[in-house]
Structure of TetR/AcrR family transcriptional regulator:
Amino acid sequence: MTSEGMNPGTTRPGGRTARVRSAVLRAAGDALAEHGLAGLDLADVARRAEVGRTTVYRRWGTPANLVADLLADMAEQSLPRAETGTLLGDLRANARLVRRTLADPRQGALFKAVIAAATGDEQAAAALHRFYDARVTEWEPCARQAVERGELPEGTDTREVIRAVSAPLYYRLLTTDQPLDEATADRAAEAAAAAARAGVFV
């Protein structure tokens, strides 16, 4: 069930509640990308979204709640996995999607802010874990199908294969000032595929 499915009034396409949520989450993402969690102010978000301050306080209550809903929305909006027919093709598609997201000036800054928030706030951390769990779940069939095709050994931890693709990209984003280019994404996919074929994830 999506987060919208749990809130009465948010499932009606084009409904006012859905429009308000969309505007507020967009404004929250902008504010996070600019100032981080410490600078995330609900009144400022309401002003940016052009909605009533009371609406934002009543629905979200705290910046951590807003971050949690933003991450839930990002998971819902993320593009579906690719199916190229080969392990390397699928992992490369995954790596390139992650790279495009993290290399985007707004999205990269947003992920840095959310990851920083998760280090000091349990609710933000739980929301971040749910976000990545949803993305790994979306892409895990790529590795599972590779096992079924005989590309990977039986007993492979297919979720760990997917994590191994994006981990180097996040590491580069957070620890260096080097660009996240497509060659870096392809190298991450190739390394994960090679390790998986060698049985590292069994």
